[in-house]
User: What shape does this take?
Amino acid sequence: MKYDVIIIGSGPGGIFSAYELTKKCPKLKIAVFEAGAELEKRKCPIDGVKVKHCINCKTCAIMSGFGGAGAFSDGKYNITNDFGGSLYEHIGKKEALDLMWYVDEINMSHGASDVKMYSTAGTKFKKICMQNRLNLLDASVRHLGTDINYIVLKNIYDELKDKVEFRFHYEVENVEKLENGYKVCGKDQEDTCTRCIISAGRSGSKWMEHVCSQLQIPTSSNRVDLGVRVELPAEIFSHLTDELYESKIVYRTQKFEDNVRTFCMNPHGFVVTENTKGIVTVNGHSYEGADKQTENTNFALLVSKHFSEPFKDSNGYGESIARLSNMLGGGVMIQKFGDLIRGRRSTIKRIEEGYVRPTLEATPGDLSLVLPKRILDGIIEMIYALDKIAPGTANDDTLLYGVEVKFYNMEVQVDDNLETIHKGLYVIGDGSGVTHSLSHASASGVYVARKIAESIES
Assistant: This one.
């Protein structure tokens, strides 16, 4: 088949590219190729009863499919340039923020109109954090929750499905440059297009490296984030979450001067697993509806590691640590903070005796046998720092799940149009290494669609 535009990947970047193209250029023939399933068929087999642990499905329903890895996240759209990627370095800070607000308008009009917008503007917690060597980053955040996020995605899909050809369970193997466009090759089929948008997401990082190598697109080394997911009673952080919902807090350790940050805070949420090509890591979700909420709040504590020459495989480093955790714990490992400090592994009995009831069934163990000392020391130091603004964080019964790893693509060299060295080939979303969040990835999709529309009109 020949298309005007082929979009590879239906995560937020791909979705919003398709959405904006149908608005700006309704006559274009557009296809979206996705390795996973359509939204309604994305079902993780883990039910906590018959299936309690990851069974390594061929395509992870949590990581792949319409909506991407963000479909079953807690649906937080952070509108800020302070974190979430470096999109503003390519398109400018005002343009980036304007696009994020535009994405917010689309979400609101597709089922999120009743969802509250939180903001750090004027909050007293900024000063409290600074007084304790913590930095609260600025942001406005629309928390859709996993439930409302699903509704929004379904409504957008229903609007697009008759305007765009979706091909699910379709893995693209190669992208080849032609004289006047591109050939997109799957196992049993080849399609061509005039313009190609790649929105492969984090789970497509290895494939993206392959494509860049084949097409000789320059890339630069990126980072990997390593850490744990913390779970504690919701009351401990309620004074922060009630006002801010998510607080992005950065702490610079005294021992190694590393930055440790909170990430993906889920008030009254669940700890969940993710499977990236057979590697099981931990994450968190939360729901907007009160009937699906828990008594706990969870969030990640992550340390970013950047590597210098000659080492280039930052994702491989993160994978090796995650595999070690999987080997020792048979999947996700859990440990009480008090046990970690005392240098002993947790047991089922000690966890059951604690006051915090885990929302994920995981294997009790010792995270000090998995995480490098420098990273673990930073996490411990951060927990004690957070305890000053949220007393109780450093309680013995606070639960730590490991490991949490955020894999980032090698940053693909793109220009200010997010276009590669090959004209008509764009790389967007988290697969580009430029964005690291739902809002930035979505905004990058809108931006490229508008650039394509401008080039067609001219």
User: Anything to note?
Assistant: The first helix runs from residue 12 to 24. The chain is about 30% helix and 25% strand.
